[in-house]
Amino acid sequence: MATKDLGSKLICKECEANFYDLKKKPPICPKCGAKQPVFKPKTRSAAARQKQTATKPAEKEEPKNEKEIDLAADD
Fold it and tell me: Using CA of residue 48, residue 53, residue 54, residue 58, what is the dihedral sign?
């Protein structure tokens, strides 16, 4: 079982080896020595979450001309 003392589990971008970053900045792969990019987690604000979950207003149907309706009925 992994412990928090080892840091985050990463996959090397160069050799695809699995390793823990040992809370080092920047993390370095122990197998090939490649420096790994540091990613910032994307967080959403409360306003963005509300905006995404809000339902879109229903689109209004345009009223048809009475002439168009009468012409279609005569055919």
Answer: positive
